[in-house]
Amino acid sequence: MGTNYTTVENCTIPFTELLSEQELSVVRSNSNIVTYEKKEVIFRQNTRTSHIMCVKSGLVKIYKEGRNNRYIILKIAGKNEFIGLMSIYGGDMHQFSASAIQTSEICFVDFNVFNTILKSNGDFSFHIINQLSNDGLFIFDRLMSQSHKQLPGRIADVILYFSEIIYGSDEFELPLTRRELAELAGTTKESFIRTLAEFKNDKIIDLNGSNVKINSLKIIKTLSELG
Taking the model in full, what pTM does it have? Predict the structure, then answer.
């Protein structure tokens, strides 16, 4: 599991500004950082939950495993995002899997320590509940997009996702394979490649390998909205 396992003081989690110095000290003394290389599995669906996990650096793919090696990518988690939180508070088994898209550092916090803080710190608990709700609503929106939007709208959603949420830029490098991007869009690899090529031919985007530059954000947003 992971290539490096180190107990450190800088293993922090979101909303630490709401924790007291004593609570911060307890978190840091009951946590460690594990480094995962690209494509390495962090946790797998249907395995037992054990720790609160947060991305310290890198990018992580959250995905649901189905039959016949079929997958649905639910979201990409970046720096300072929790992973696996819904499973931990929804039962004792992970309902999805997570793997590193690139070399990633994951902060593991002892579940009992985290739970004790939740019970005693109302402001912190409120923000965690809000985070859980946002994660659930985001996945609902993703599944609704895959079920109801036409292919150009779904591909536009993927481009906007990386542009606005992951990188905050109109120019970026797609960190996933074409197959994984198709899984994120809820389509086949061939359909994804064809539609992406159409976007390029229509000069909506520039595409060089995995490097994307959005030429018309307005068209991309229109395609996303119209579905």
Answer: 0.84
Decide: helix, strand or coil at residue 60: strand
Compute the distance between CA of residue 220 and CA of residue 50 in angstroms, rounded to an integer: 41
DSSP helix, strand, coil percent of the chain (3-state; round to 5):
45, 25, 30
Confidence of residue 169 (pLDDT cuts 50, 70, 90): very high
How many Å apart are CA 71 and CA 184, to the nearest integer?
Answer: 9
Q: Sort strands 97-100 and 60-65 into parallel, antiparallel or unpaired.
A: antiparallel
Q: What would the DSSP string read from start to end of 65-100? A: E-GGG-EEEEEEE-TT-EESHHHHTT-SB-SSEEEE
**Consecutive H or E run containing 54:** strand 51-57
**Dist. CA 106–CA 83, nearest whole Å:** 9
Q: Identify any residues that bridge with 212 across adjacent strands, giving them in sequence order.
A: 172, 207
Which residues are 4's β-sheet partners?
A: 35
Domains of the chain: 4-139 (2.60.120.10), 149-226 (1.10.10.10)
- Give pLDDT, residue 4: 44
